[in-house]
Structure formats: C-alpha cells, structure tokens
Amino acid sequence: MERLVLAGEGPWPAAAERAAAVLRMGRVALLPAEGVYGLHARAEDPGAVARLLALKPRSSEKRFVGLIAEPAEIGRWSKPSALASALASEHWPGALTLVLRAATSVPESMRSPDGTVALRCPGNPFLRAVVAGAGGIVLSTSANEPGEAALLRPEGPIAERADLVVDQGALSGTPSTVALVEGDRVQVLREGAVRLSGSPGS
Description:
The protein has six helices and ten strands. It has helices spanning 12-24, 46-55, 74-77, 82-91, 125-134, 157-161, and strands spanning 2-5, 29-32, 37-42, 65-67, 96-101, 116-120, 138-142, 164-167, 177-182, 185-190. The radius of gyration is 16 Å and the shape is globular.
C-alpha cells in the first residue's frame, strides 16, 4: 500500500497526478472526499470495479456514486431535468450528489435497478483534479465497513488494503447532501453540507 500525505497547499497537484495514475492502472485509491474518506476506482475498468467490490461488497440493488470533473458532464451520464441542471449549475463543484435518470452511457456499476444514477462534481479541488486526470468517470463510496461510521482519518482495515492512501488529516465528517430529482420535484435523501429545500422522506 502506497501512502501520500497532503500538508498545506504545496504538494497536492503532484499527489493528484499520482492518484489519477493509480486509478488509470485499474487500482483502488482511498482519497479525501466531501467531509469523509472514500474509496475510488475507474467505472469503465471491470478489473478496477471488481477490486473495489472486493474491498467493499454491496448488494445488487445499491450502486456506487459517479464522480465527474466538470458540471457540464451531467448531460453525458444522465437525463437531467431543467431543475437538475439548475441545481448542478448552482452547487457544482460542491458537496451535492444528484440522483437522476441514467443515460445509456452509464456503466453497469453505477446504474441502479430503477434506472437512476448518482452523480457529483466534487467540491474538493484535490479530488476533482484526480477525477479529471483519471479520465471518464470515477466510482466513489465511503471507506468504511458496512454499518460502521464513515472514516474521518484514513485508518483501519479498508485503508490498509487500498492500493493508494492519500492522507489529508482529519476531515469534517459532514458528507455530501444527496437529492433525488424527478422532473420539477427534488427530494432530499440525506442531509449534508449543502442545504436544499425539502427534507428526507418528503
């Protein structure tokens, strides 16, 4: 396992280049995301997806979040409504995950059985640079064992099994907001760093 430490503003571009290279090689990187640490792999690399699933298995009903480097890519991977496009324009890059109707281009590892896909353009500049360097779309999932709290520091069994760990110190613990957008209706599925109208279950 390779470990890089981010301290201040200086070294992070080089670390982002290294992390992107690791992802392009079909490996899995544990990286600082939106308030917590997450596992990341290239969505269009079957070997990388299998490696990610070995580190953090999940049921066939649950898919990974897809990270994109630019807000404009929303139309490539989804069928956004006017409301979804407006939310992306307002909050991306940022800690908002949008659940939308999936486009036909979406890899199977991201497409939910109901035909939706979860997308985010990361607010963390480091992570966004990694996604841009990796090419395509990057899968993301919190780096914790099922049922356990999300990682605020890159430590523990999953971190030890990742191919690369980038340590940015203790994170805030506030995850991204997750919102389902259907037509002109938005439903907040998880409260997080971005405040939207609506509430869980509404």
